[in-house]
Task: structure prediction
Amino acid sequence: MIKGRIAKKKSIEKYVENLCKELGINRMWSKAIFIKFKTTLDNQAEGLCWGDPSEGYVDISIARTSIGKKMTMKSMMQTLAHEMVHAKQYLRGELCGYSMSWKGKKPRNYKYENAPWEREAYKLEAELYSKCWPID
Result:
């Protein structure tokens, strides 16, 4: 489900479908992914993801502007790919947001960029974008 003011909604729907297939989310029978495009997000973030594996849902928010600048479609879609990696992590129970545990292990006060869930998302985002975005 995609909400918010954004161009190319049909292309984005196809993109999300492609990302779900690539990440194996499409094989999960109990899942809901809500994507909202917002003018800005807290802390100037480009994207946010929160999920609850026991309830089978994920909420993703993507900013249209960050640090006072309009984000390009490519930047928003690469951010969406990053957040979809987190969606996969939540839906598979790899990442637990309440305790921020990773694959059943308690967190170790990671710096943001060193957290294993972020390292995986950053590693895959560009590859997922280039493989799954239906147009350019």
Remarks:
- The mean pLDDT is 89.
